[in-house]
Amino acid sequence: MDIKNRFTLKLKLLGAVILGLICIAAVALFGLKLWQQAKYSEDILVQFSTPEIKRSHFLQDLIYGFGYGGFIHNFKNYVLRKDVNYYYKAIDKAQITLDAIDAYLKLDLNEDQITNINLLRDTVVLYQEKLSIAHQLISNNLDIEQIDLKVRVDDTHAIQALGNIIAQTRSSVASTKQKAEENLQEFENLLVYFFTIIIGLLVLCFGYLVFTLSLLVSKYNEIEALFNASPYAIINANEKGLIIRANKKACELFDYQLSSLKKLCIDELVPDRYRATHHKKRTEFIQSYQHLAMQNRKSQLFAKNKHGQNIPVSISVASYWQNNEKRSIAIIKDDSKEIKLRSESRTDTLTQVGNRIACNEKLESNIAHSERYSTELSIILIDIDHFKNVNDKYGHLTGDQVLIQVAQLLKAHIRESDSLFRWGGEEFLIITPNTGQQQAAELAEKLRRLTQVHSFHDEFNITISLGITSYLHARDTSKSLFHRIDKALYQAKNSGRNTCCTL
Q1: Number of domains the chain contains
Q2: Do residue 110 and residue 189 come from a single domain?
Q3: Contact status, residue 261 vs residue 254, Cβ threshold 8 Å
Q4: Could you list the residue ranges that cross the membrane (predicted)?
Q5: What is the DSSP string of 437-470?
Q6: 485 and 403 in a common domain
């Protein structure tokens, strides 16, 4: 891209940024105004509507208390019918009415409302007193006319007070309704202004979107080129694991045609023994929105090609949303060549056991494991006795065969968890994890005897000298271990060779 095109692109980007900022500011400003208006509406609801609802609820209890089925109704029925059930109902209803009055008094009331409600309260209390008198008179078997004269209550003023309260409540509700209507009208006007501005901004944004889409198309083309030119295999899969896209390198790695690869589930590219675990982990991973590198792990990852062959790989995966569907993308690197090179660099070419580099790495790893889990660890250093005489008398080719046979013999008689290395020249070293010094000494003696009786050549026999030592927690390093086992081997050789020495 030349300088002129770069400058033009920068101007377009700057213009898009400025337009975007203007849109954001306008939306934020009107959004704030709408929020303030909504908050005001909420305040009206809290300040007026909620108390009015409570007021109406308590008022309903008051009307019921003074009306049919309330305490006055039951009071009069008790006097007329002398049925004790009405007596107890009147007591209960009177108390409910008093509770409603007490709750009503806790509201924000004016002086007239307080006067009216107190008048209602006094009337209810008076009825309670008359109810007790009526109960006593009925118990004494007085006739209805006599009882009525003694317990009659003039509740005309209470009924009038109740009417006043109802009228005031209606007036308050009407006032609240008017304020709500005014606020609604203001809110509607604000919405008209808001949408007018938004439509104008949308027209401006249309140009920005066209510009952005052109940039996206350009970026998509770049990504597509990278996708197809990548030196690593790249596979896209949907939420069910079905492969929906793959690049050329993926087809080469798994030896499938693209059309065949897109018919597979990603689980089918995993070795059979890992498939169930992979399916579970993939299902869990696809629910997240993350990326994950699967290299630098304790165990090597493997994939499976069309022919069922396992391929050592490193994998990075990510999950993302596209068209309301969760998808994943995997970048897969073939580790075959790297592993081969790494193995060759750590393998003795003659004896095909680990070399000194591999030995150092393995020992450091075992020391760390032993220190962390407080397990035992021992090492055995082996030297072929008088090996120089074999080379001098029978030649280096014969000497090489002796080295190969010694390595094979040692490897065949150690545990699978033990590790054998060629330490250098005619020396070998065995690392024995989870093994104490006594067990290591027994293994060393066993190897010494096996070597002594083994037939290496028609004209000579081979013996070995062995030094044994164990890891001392918190006091040892690989350097101190090597120093101590070297001394142990030296003592074994000075003791006449073909022997074991522990230190």
Answers
A1: 3
A2: yes
A3: yes
A4: 13-32, 190-211
A5: HHHHHHHHHHHHHHHHHS---SS----EEEEEEE
A6: yes
Task: Give alpha helix (H) positions in 330-386.
Answer: 336-345, 356-373
All residues at 6 or more sequence positions from 210 whose CB lies less than 8 Å from its CB, including other chains: none
CA atoms within 13 A of residue 472's CA, in its CB half-sphere: 10
Q: What single-letter DSSP state applies at residue 269?
A: G
What would the two tokens of residue 238 be?
A: 């949907």
Phi, psi (5° rounding) for residue 469?
Answer: -150, 165
Q: pLDDT (tens digit, 9 = 90+) per residue, 241-254?
A: 888 888 888 888 88
Residue 34 reports pLDDT greater than 70: no
- Which of 466, 421, 475, 424 has its CA nearest to residue 443? 466
How do strand 419-424 and strand 427-433 relate by DSSP bridges? antiparallel
pLDDT category, 198, cuts 50, 70, 90?
A: confident
Same domain, yes or no, for 326 and 382?
A: no
The SS3 of residue 37 is helix
Single-letter code of the amino acid located at 354: G
Q: In whole angstroms, give the CA distance from residue 60 to residue 73.
A: 16
Are 400 and 442 part of one and the same domain?
yes
* Integer angstrom CA distances of residue 224 from 217, 234, 399: 10, 12, 59
User: Which region among 332-336, 467-471, 488-492 has the lowest average model confidence (pLDDT)?
Assistant: 332-336
Domain membership of residue 428 (yes or no) is: yes
For 113-165, the pLDDT digits (tens) are 888 888 888 888 888 888 888 888 888 888 888 787 888 887 787 778 777 87
Same domain, 167 and 274: no
Whether residue 207 lies inside any domain: the answer is no
Q: Buried b / exposed e across 50-78, counting CB within 10 Å, b at 16+?
A: eebeebeebbebbbbbbeeebbbbbbbbb
Give the Cα separation of 194 and 200 in Å (integer): 10
pTM over 0.90? The answer is no
Which of 175, 133, 148 minimizes the C-alpha distance to 47? 175
Distance of CA 398 to the CA centre of its chain: 63
Q: How far apart are CA 253 and CA 177, in angstroms?
A: 74
Q: b/e map of 141-180 (b: 16 or more CB within 10 Å)? A: ebeeeebeeebeeebeebeebbebbeebeeebbeebeeee
Residue 287 belongs to domain with CATH number: 3.30.450.20
